[in-house]
Amino acid sequence: MEQTSAPAPDELVRRHASPGASLIAVLHAIQDETGFVPPEVVAPLARAFNLSRAEVHGVITYYHHFRTQPPAPVTVALCRAEACRSMGTEALAQHIEGRTGCRFDAAHGASGHAEQAAGREVELESVYCLGQCALSPSMTINGALHVKVTPAKFDALLEQARESAASTLAHKESV
Amino acid sequence: MTTRVFVPCDSSALALGADAIADAIAQEAARRGVSIELVRNGSRGLLWLEPLVEVQTAQGRVGYGNVESLDVASLFEAGFLTGGAHARSVGLVDDIPYLKQQQRLTFARLGLTDPLSIDDYVAHEGLVGLKAALGMSAEAACQTVLDSGLRGRGGAAFPAGIKWRTVREANAAQKYIVCNADEGDSGTFSDRLAMEGDPFALIEGMIIAGISTGATRGYIYVRSEYPHSISMLNAAIGKARAAGWLGQRVLGSDHAFELEVAKGAGSYVCGEETALLESLEGKRGVVRAKPPVPALVGLFGQPTVVNNVITLATVPIIFARGAQFYRDFGMGRSRGTLPFQLAGNIKQGGLVELAFGVTLRELVEKFGGGTASGRPARAVQVGGPLGTYLPESQWDIPLDYEAYAAVGAVVGHGGLVVHDDTSNLAELAQYAMHFCAVESCGKCTPCRIGSTRGVEVIARIRNGDTSEKQVQLLRDLCDTMVSGSLCAMGGMTPYPVLSALDHFPEDFGLRPVQPKAAAA
Predict the structure, then answer these.
(1) How far apart (Å, rounded) are the C-alpha atoms in residues B458 and B466?
(2) Which of A54, B105, B245, B322 is 20 to 30 Å from B380 at the Cα level?
(3) Cis bond leading into A9, ω under 30°?
(4) Nearest chain A alpha carbon to B347
(5) Which pairs count as long-range contacts for B155-163, CB under 8 Å and 24+ apart, including other chains?
(6) Is the pLDDT of residue B519 over 60?
(7) What does DSSP assign to residue A104?
(8) Edge-to-edge strand order for the sheet containing A74-79?
(9) What is the DSSP letter of B39?
């Protein structure tokens, strides 16, 4: 079994679209397995749910959580909401952009065109509240939650995440 | 003798290394050959002290705050298992004024128990409410909620008892209880603390809601940003089911109730009840027009109670101690307690549950200890991103739904975010409009287009065009959004914007003006 290639779209949908499950629950299951929702699953999902492809596409694109491209090896989600703003999250965001050479929300593209994702090592996302408002600023790095983040703490966390991503990649290539 | 040591398993504590601390304590105890029982409790809500390690002593639970793994060896050296003195010691936790001065009803068990232990739950007054409810008629149960004065804690403050009664009286083969756990407001985390620290209370409250209204299915819609809450709830529901709380015969009675967790997908507006129902049905989270209200036409078109986590988690104590007990807390038409959340630039952030009527100044200064930065506090936003910025002149108004409404502010979900004197309220106003643009569901024009126009006009003012024309344009736009939006997203985004403009005009580059007659 080839480890690195994603399962076929029909197979993904068959596996997760159990009777009675909501479309959103199935999209979560697909993204949890593959890291994103491949555009190729839209047609089989539409058939499984007796919806139009436009309706399925509409649901996927409505929700910020669903992504249609694979995530970068290191994905940083920084809270930009009020409580974190009061504790300097905007200055931290500038530091992070400077440190990584990436821009926040580049994948969403202000002009409506997603920036080319391939080959990037770090991806920066804005999120609005992680529920840690008494311990601001907060962020997740590859899903792991961190609070009271300072620029120095971020630098250390980024280094750890890069090393961990590199070793995962090396492990995959050796398989 | 085995000593009980408590290390919280709440996501705040986990983010600060609580798992590593628990491991280090277990290893060090094994190395020294001392017998301990390690309990993973919920957070006490004293978040500035996390990770807060506690030890059970004859005098009570002694706490050690802001513990790091590296402290563990020295804690053992200092004899912390018998409450020994250490630089991290905070003394008897129940005597910490922040905790001692609270009125914990909804959160009576918070941090005391292992959130996933049914034995712990039952030993701390758990299930008393459900057993009382099972002995009542559905009509009497709804009346109990009505008599308690409990109003929706999500922010809208609608009387819960009226909602329940409407669903009970509706005729339908299937009714639903939906818990709104899409806690997206910045500055709020009480739902999260309840789900992670005392999930059985929410489950018990939902079962009571089910048997009181004839609903046999429940859903807890939790935001995807709360993965730890989701896993705690799923674990708790599994235990509740195994213990016979759920299923065809709730605690052996003739009532059936099933419960499951649904995961959101990162849309703020899904915290609005009709958008939430759309999302639960697997659709885009677009707001529905009301009427009909969800109590009559809700999930899949059926009568549905939609209540916030705190509303439902408060139900068990109302049934355990009686409506009158709960009603005796509070003031005016705001009965009971509200778990306030102290957040943002605050020294002692955390959960403070108190009866309605406390003031912002007491919360920020007495409990919060002022700002984290040590600079003077300047503005406090109460009620989340759709709430008003209150200047110091308004910090002595009692926190009560009606008293706040009278000054154009909202209590909302009880979150307060403190900003110090380095804040720029014009920037925060622009952010409020930006947030609305990002999160608008797009169904109604005032919200969808107004928010983007709002960002633009505030940017123009901030860039120096401070003419009366621009300011009037912003006010007109806000008026359109308030009056013309379908839900609170567009309808209340002007609250932070206008309060910033009215109370902090200098941040917009405008000259402070003496307030003229407010009514128009």
Answers:
(1) 10
(2) B105
(3) no
(4) A134
(5) B155/B185, B155/B308, B155/B383, B155/B384, B155/B410, B155/B411, B155/B412, B155/B413, B155/B488, B156/B488, B157/B334, B157/B401, B157/B411, B160/B307, B160/B311, B160/B315, B163/B295, B163/B305, B163/B306, B163/B307
(6) no
(7) B
(8) A122-127, A74-79, A139-141, A144-146
(9) E
Residue whose token pair is 């391939």: A118
Specify the pLDDT at position B471.
Answer: 97
Beta-bridge mates of residue B221: B180, B262
Residue A172, pLDDT above cutoff 90: no
The SS3 of residue B284 is coil
**Sole residue written with tokens 């029982």:** B37
Q: What is the DSSP string of B379-440?
A: EEEESGGGSPEEEGGGTTSB--HHHHHHTT---TTSEEEEEETT--HHHHHHHHHHHHHHH-
* Cα(B385)–Cα(B415) distance, integer angstroms: 10
Q: What is the pLDDT of residue A107?
A: 72
Q: Which residues contact B266 (CB under 8 A, 6 or more apart)?
A: A63, A64, A65, A66, A127, B223, B224, B225
Q: Measured between beta carbons, which residues in chain A are less than 8 angstroms from residue B47?
A: 134-135
Distance (Å) from the alpha carbon of A121 to chain B's nearest alpha carbon: 23
Residues of chain A neighbouring B14 (CB-CB closer than 8 A): 145
A136 and B225 within 8 Å at the Cβ level: the answer is no
Give the three-class secondary structure for A117. coil
Determine the distance in angstroms separating the CA of B441 from the nearest CA of chain A, rounded to an integer.
8
Q: What are the chain A neighbours of B184 within 8 Å (beta carbons)?
A: 128-129
Q: Which residue has the tokens 């309990």?
A: B39
E strand or H helix at B37, and its extent? Answer: strand B36-39
Q: Which of A79, A129, A141, A148 to mutate to test the interface with B (most CBs of B within 10 A)?
A: A129
Using DSSP's 3-state secondary structure scheme, residue A77 falls into strand
- State the ipTM, two decimals: 0.95
Distance from the Cα of A157 to chain B's closest Cα (Å) equals 12
Answer whether A82 sits within 8 Å of B281, measured CB to CB. no
Residue B269: which residues within 8 A CB-CB, separation 6 or more?
Answer: B275, B285, B287, B439, B440, B441, B487, B489
A133:B187 CB<8 A: yes
Question: Helices (H), strands (E): how many in chain A?
Answer: 7, 4
- Out of A87, A146, A148, name the one closest to residue B345 (CB): A87
Q: How confident is the model at residue A120 (pLDDT cuts 50, 70, 90)?
A: confident
pLDDT band at B1 (very low <50, low <70, confident <90, very high): confident
- Name the residue among A23, A85, A127 with its Cβ closest to that of B282: A23
β strands within chain A, DSSP E: 74-79, 122-127, 139-141, 144-146
Cα angle B79, B85, B88; round to 5: 105
Concatenated DSSP letters of B128-143: HHHHHHHTS-HHHHHH
Say whether A134 and B385 touch across the interface (CB within 8 A). Answer: no
Cβ contact A63–B280 (<8 Å): no
A95 class by beta-carbon count within 10 Å (0-12 exposed, 13-18 middle, 19+ buried): middle
B2-to-B34, B37, B64, B380 alpha-carbon distances in Å: 8, 6, 19, 46
Residues of A within 8 A of B192 (CB-CB) are 131
This prediction has a pTM of 0.96
What region does B247 belong to: left with phi over 0, alpha with psi -120 to 50, or beta?
A: left
Distance of alpha carbon B192 from alpha carbon A40, whole angstroms: 36
CA–CA–CA angle A51, A54, A58 (5° rounding): 100
Give the bridge partners for A145, in sequence order: A140
